[in-house]
Structures are given as structure tokens and as C-alpha cells.
């Protein structure tokens, strides 16, 4: 590449969404995208493990420098390409708030995708053996508590985004993409998980509207898959 970087990712990862709306679309930063199919195990090939020994995606390659982990990738892009300050504020207190959310996410709200995978995709999409009920329950408990904290503590009336911000940060992208994955659950389960959480619903709507059309574009695949799964279950 003559400029920019390459991103190796499955569809709908948070950093892919951020790359589209924050880096490329808004600031004309050039990049290449290489899709990796988790279903086919493409992330576990020797070529991929040579770049990331853990065999995990997403990661980016910037002039030979490999950056892993979604939150680290987004921090890196913000600073490397001097993206608008609202994504990752220079103000120490504001940035610390964003960092707190990013760190909290990995041990808490991240359980959402694990729950969604086991309930909605492990058997029907990936054709794997059914998960053990205790594993589902563990992910469910962490997810529900995290969503409660998100609704009652991290979303306020002061602004449309996390911690009362008036514009989205990379934490909104990371957490918003995670919660959006609940579209893969059946209608009853989705209502049980997100019902009665008006702040989350309002926040997701604001995030999609503010970043339009990129948020919807990046989530096209999982939303269409969700519709297919719903139709096949009837």
C-alpha cells in the first residue's frame, strides 16, 4: 500500500465500523479491507497466526506494524491520523472516562456476544455441538448485569451518548456494536434482554443516526442473517 493501513476482520467488528465512519469516510484515510470468515476458520490459518499468534481477529497492519484488539486499534487510529477530538478526547478527564468504558467492556458487556453466539448461532449457523447450559447461564448473568449498569449508570439525560457526551466516542462504537448483536436473538429473548431499557434504545438510535449511513452498512450482514434465522425458525 502507498498510504493508510490494512484491516483484517470479520464483518461487523467495532473497529471495522469505526474505520469506515471515523477514518476513511470522515477523514479520507486510505485503507484496505480483508474479510476473514470465522465460519471457515480462516482466522486460524498459519498465515494469520504468523501475524497474530493467538489466531484472533480483528487486527490491522500499518506499514508492517500489527495492532490487535478492537479498543487498542481504535485508540491507535485516533492518534495516528489525528481524528476529530470527540472520538478520543485530548482532555485528560474525558479521555479517562472513555478508557474506563473500554476497560469495563471487556470483562462485562463483552459477554453479550458470547451469549448471542451460544443461543443463536453456535448450532444453527456454525453447526457446532450445543453449548452447556451452565455456560449460557454464566454469560447471561454477566450480560444482564452489564446492560443494567449501562442503562442506569453510563447513559444519562445530559447527552445522547455514553457518560452524557454530546458526540460519540470510540466507546460508543465498541459498546454499541456489542449491544446491536442482540438482533441475532429470537424476538422473545431479545425483548427479555432489552425490554424496559429506554435509554439503551434511545442511545442506539442516536448512534445509528449520527453515524449514518455507516453504522447500518457495517451491520447489514448480521441483520440479514438474523432475518434469515427468524424466517427459518417459523
TrEMBL record:
Residues 26-85 form the GST N-terminal domain. Gene3D superfamilies: 1.20.1050.10, Glutaredoxin. PROSITE patterns: GST_NTER (PS50404). InterPro entries: Glutathione-S-Trfase_C_sf (IPR036282), Glutathione_S-Trfase (IPR040079), Glutathione_S-Trfase_N (IPR004045), GSTT1/2/3 (IPR043377), Thioredoxin-like_sf (IPR036249). Coiled coil: none annotated. This is GST N-terminal domain-containing protein. It comes from Marchantia polymorpha subsp. ruderalis.
Amino acid at each position: 500500500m502507498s498510504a493508510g493501513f490494512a484491516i483484517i476482520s470479520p464483518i461487523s467488528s467495532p473497529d471495522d465500523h469505526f474505520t469506515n465512519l471515523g477514518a476513511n469516510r470522515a477523514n479520507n484515510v486510505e485503507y484496505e479491507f480483508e474479510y476473514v470468515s470465522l465460519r471457515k476458520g480462516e482466522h486460524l490459518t498459519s498465515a494469520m497466526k504468523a501475524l497474530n499468534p493467538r489466531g484472533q481477529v480483528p487486527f490491522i497492519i500499518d506499514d508492517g506494524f500489527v495492532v490487535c484488539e478492537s479498543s487498542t486499534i481504535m485508540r491507535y487510529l485516533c492518534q495516528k491520523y489525528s481524528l476529530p477530538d470527540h472520538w478520543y478526547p485530548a482532555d485528560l478527564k474525558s479521555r479517562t472516562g472513555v478508557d474506563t468504558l473500554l476497560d469495563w467492556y471487556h470483562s462485562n458487556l463483552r459477554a453479550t456476544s458470547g451469549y448471542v453466539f451460544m443461543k443463536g448461532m453456535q448450532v444453527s449457523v456454525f453447526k457446532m455441538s450445543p453449548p452447556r447450559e451452565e455456560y449460557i447461564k454464566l454469560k447471561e448473568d454477566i450480560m444482564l448485569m452489564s446492560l443494567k449498569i449501562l442503562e442506569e449508570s453510563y447513559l444519562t439525560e445530559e447527552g445522547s451518548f455514553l457518560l452524557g457526551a454530546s458526540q460519540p466516542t470510540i466507546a460508543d462504537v465498541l459498546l454499541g456494536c456489542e449491544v446491536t448483536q442482540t438482533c441475532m436473538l429470537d424476538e422473545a429473548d431479545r425483548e427479555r434482554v432489552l425490554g424496559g431499557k429506554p435509554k439503551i434504545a434511545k442511545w442506539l438510535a442516536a448512534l445509528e443516526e449520527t453515524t449514518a449511513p455507516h453504522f447500518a452498512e457495517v451491520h447489514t450482514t448480521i441483520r440479514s442473517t438474523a432475518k434469515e434465522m427468524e424466517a427459518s425458525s417459523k
